[in-house]
Target: Methionine aminopeptidase
Amino acid sequence: MVNYIEASSAPSKNTGAIRLYGPEAFEGMRKACQVTARCLDELAAFVRPGVATDAIDRFVFEFGMDNGAIPATLNYRGYTKSTCTSINHVVCHGIPDAKPLREGDIVNIDVTYVVEGWHGDSSRMYPVGTIKRAAERLLEVTYESLLRGISAVRPGARTGAIGEAIQTYAEAERCSVVRDFCGHGVGALFHDSPNILHYGRANEGPELREGMIFTIEPMINLGRPHVKVLADGWTAVTRDRSLSAQYEHTVGVTADGCEIFTLSPGGLDRPGLPPLNR
Model:
């Protein structure tokens, strides 16, 4: 049985109950998420061949310090970096290091800032220089998958509707959906209930209610969906070494749909790709 709780009376840990937030929380999330979105905007001009992911990590840390924001990943469960940088066949949780990006790479940069107790969580894909058409198509399919998942969010729908919208589209485009990782509740906590699967059926999962806040972050592979985690305990890669991509937004359920808190203020939600004609 799914339990819902008013966030103002919820304990400061994930109990499995789904928090329902009010207007003040939505305002706090707007502030935190826009710091994250502005950082991701700034990175569009920073990501290029020859730049080490360690330099990206330093940029994220310094941007946070300059804007009154703390990187949520820093020292989280022993993780020592301010961001995750996942290149090519890395699905998620890639650890920044001294290795430089190369022409033709694709890299996901995942940033979460804590601002006045609120967590703003988002990630985008960045092409490094000129990329192959197959990689560009994967980015296009993954971003469209995210948009289709978001379009399914409304009160009375179930979380499975998000997964069904993503899975149906991605698989029709001959791509696969990673099952091992999912979106999650967010807000006062970094990771909270419910889990948001990126596959499934529309009549499955908890009912969406006004006030819920969570991430949608589909990981889409050009090859098969299977992944493995490397010996560092963090880095997840495709087992067949096919390319993987991910885009992520934080959304809040409203009376008639949802609000996307992490939209780019500069129109750079899919940097390096042509503008959408929607």
Summary: The first strand starts at residue 4 and ends at 6. Residues 47 and 128 are 7 Å apart (CA to CA).
